[in-house]
Design a protein that fits this description.
- The N and C termini lie far apart (37 Å).
- The strands form 4 sheets. An 8-stranded mixed sheet has the order 5-8-11-14-17-20-22-23, covered by helices on one side. A 6-stranded parallel sheet has the order 6-9-12-15-18-21, with no helix packed on it. A 5-stranded parallel sheet has the order 7-10-13-16-19, with no helix packed on it.
- It contains 3 helices and 23 strands.
- It is α/β, with parallel strands linked by helices and 229 residues long.
Length: 229
């Protein structure tokens, strides 16, 4: 149903906000074939964007770049945040606050190879990469990112701006707080609660609750230090 809703909203014009070539190649490749042209609006100068060494264009889509002052309509296009990493929240907050973009204009982007079970609900700006599985009755907040080959167990709650890296397994009935990042290949056992603004290191096995604002890693995962924001 979410994929159907996304397609229903995906009418041109579509604009990608921000300019992270790390993510742009993924996002452009995931767009349905209906999109032959998209706009790209960067919020930082190219000379300050170190990731531009990486190519991002895909053959079937024409990308036209704009500056913010060239945009005259922020109310009717569809938008996707052109980042799936740590800059995602900053980009979203900048454009929403500066231009009063209606939140319903941010569309979900879900790869067709991923499986989403019944009872799933999500906030705006959802991103789900290929080969991920979302079990029944999960709830995701705003601008959540699920990277490739992630498994999320039933009745799990991911709050706003949670980022889950490739190959993660989150077991059932877990809760992950706002702005927390789960590193690649981590495993989170059933009924675990992880606080907001925390980082779980790659390959970790989380066997007990993790508080707000910390960095934890290992097997079993232990709090190493505070996460300096």
């Amino acid at each position: 149903l979410l994929q159907q809703q996304a397609r229903a909203m995906m009418t041109e014009p579509l604009f990608l906000l921000g300019k992270s070539p790390y993510a742009l190649s993924i996002i452009l490749d995931m767009l349905p074939v209906e999109f032959q042209r998209v706009g790209l609006i960067s919020n930082i100068p190219d000379e300050e964007n170190t990731s531009l060494a990486f190519p991002f264009l895909v053959p079937h889509i024409q990308v036209r770049e704009y500056t913010e002052d060239q945009m005259t309509d922020w109310q009717s296009p569809s938008f996707i945040i052109a980042s799936i990493g740590k800059s995602r929240r900053l980009i979203a907050e900048h454009f929403i606050k500066t231009y009063a973009i209606p939140e319903e204009r941010f569309i979900p982007l879900i790869h067709t190879s991923s499986v989403i079970a019944n009872g799933f609900t999500a906030g705006i700006g959802l991103h789900i990469s290929p080969l991920s599985v979302i079990a029944p009755y999960c709830t995701f907040g705003r601008f959540v990112v699920i990277n490739r080959h992630v498994n999320v167990g039933h009745h799990t709650m991911l709050h706003d701006y949670v980022s889950v890296n490739p190959g993660v397994t989150i077991s059932g009935i877990c809760t992950i707080g706002e702005r927390t990042t789960i590193g690649a290949g981590a495993t989170i056992l059933d009924k675990i609660k992880i606080g907001r603004d925390s980082i779980i290191g790659a390959g970790s096995v989380v066997t007990k609750d993790i508080p707000d604002g910390v960095i934890a890693y290992g097997s079993p995962a232990k709090v190493i230090r505070d996460n300096i924001l």
